[in-house]
């Protein structure tokens, strides 16, 4: 069995399409299809149900996936061990994170790690969505819920809080609400409900209030920008809102609590570069843990 054929098999399984896998591996579409044919012939069974819409793993393909990922993990570990013995950590590590945490917290701090390890390339993808580690959309994911399925390794990163905030100029012009009922008289900024990828984003429900936002924005950074500009009252992360002098807390006794989780895939969790970056993220958070409270 050729390891390169297995690499192609893994790429097709993760992308769900031969063409997408070929682009990812920078190979010709026909080459990828031919190598899959060769692998299936060598094993004596079909690994994919090939349709015009994509490729679905068969039962035999799913079984091979487990072994192939273990082999991949061993190869990555061997490469990482070789580099570590030479006193350097190299490679590319992609981190997927919620846009608020990724943009506002990680982006201004991760450069320190890269500066200490010039052979390391860090890719930060801070967007309001979930990431698939099994499909290698990221090597490390920061999530707002602990994953319940998949061959994943997860641990709580930090608890964080959210509260109601508005710009001083908005409150100076419209007044500061003294009760939940008074919120009905104010402009509200919220999320786009049908684009929310997790029930954990339903902050208003935890506060026990209705939130008929006139301005709905699908990202935490977008909501922060709108509220800071005076668009109205929003439910914002404390660690993002408190450092901004133009914002003031509204009904500060109200608070929502959530958690961030750090997640890696079992097949890459012990790779030197992934482990180094995961440990660095934990350290960065621990050093400033108080800002999340």
Q: How would you describe this structure to a colleague?
A:
- The protein has helices at residues 3-15, 18-25, 29-43, 59-85, 99-106, 111-116, 168-174, 203-207, 220-228, 238-241, 272-287; strands at 48-51, 54-57, 91-97, 120-126, 140-143, 152-167, 188-190, 215-216, 233-237, 247-250, 256-265.
- With 293 residues, the protein is α/β, with parallel strands linked by helices.
- The protein has three domains: 3-84, Arc Repressor Mutant, subunit A, CATH 1.10.10; 88-158 and 259-292, Periplasmic binding protein-like II (D-Maltodextrin-Binding Protein, domain 2); 161-256, Periplasmic binding protein-like II (D-Maltodextrin-Binding Protein, domain 2).
- Strands 3, 4, 5, 6, 7, 8, 9, 10 and 11 form a nine-stranded mixed beta sheet that branches. A two-stranded antiparallel ribbon has the order 1-2.
- β7 (188-190), α8 and β8 (215-216) form a beta-alpha-beta unit.
- The termini are far apart.
- The model has no long low-confidence stretch (mean pLDDT 86).
């Amino acid at each position: 069995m050729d390891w390169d054929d297995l690499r192609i098999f893994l790429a097709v399984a993760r992308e769900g399409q031969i063409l997408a896998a070929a682009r990812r591996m920078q190979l010709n579409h026909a080459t990828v299809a031919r190598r899959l044919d060769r692998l299936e012939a060598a094993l004596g069974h079909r690994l994919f149900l090939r349709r015009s819409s994509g490729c679905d793993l068969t039962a035999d393909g799913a079984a091979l996936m487990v072994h192939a990922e273990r082999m991949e993990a061993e190869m990555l570990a061997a490469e990482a061990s070789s580099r570590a013995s030479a006193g350097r950590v190299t490679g590319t590590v992609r981190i997927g994170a919620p846009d608020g945490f990724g943009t506002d917290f990680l982006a201004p701090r991760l450069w320190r790690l890269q500066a200490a390890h010039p052979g390391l390339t860090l890719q930060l993808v801070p967007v309001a969505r979930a990431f698939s580690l099994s499909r290698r959309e990221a090597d490390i994911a920061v999530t707002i819920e602990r994953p319940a399925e998949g061959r994943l390794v997860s641990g709580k990163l930090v608890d964080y809080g959210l509260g109601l905030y508005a710009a001083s100029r908005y409150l100076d012009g419209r007044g500061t609400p003294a009760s939940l009922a008074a919120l009905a008289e104010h402009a509200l900024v919220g999320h786009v409900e049908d684009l929310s990828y997790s029930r954990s984003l339903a902050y208003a429900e935890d506060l026990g209030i209705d939130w008929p936002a006139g301005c709905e924005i699908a990202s935490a950074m977008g909501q922060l920008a709108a509220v800071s500009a005076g668009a109205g009252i929003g439910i914002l992360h404390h660690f993002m809102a408190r450092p901004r002098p133009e914002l003031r807390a509204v009904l500060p006794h109200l608070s929502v609590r959530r958690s961030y989780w750090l997640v890696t895939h079992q097949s890459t969790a012990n790779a030197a570069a992934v482990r180094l970056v995961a440990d660095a993220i934990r350290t960065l958070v621990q050093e400033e843990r108080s800002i999340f409270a």
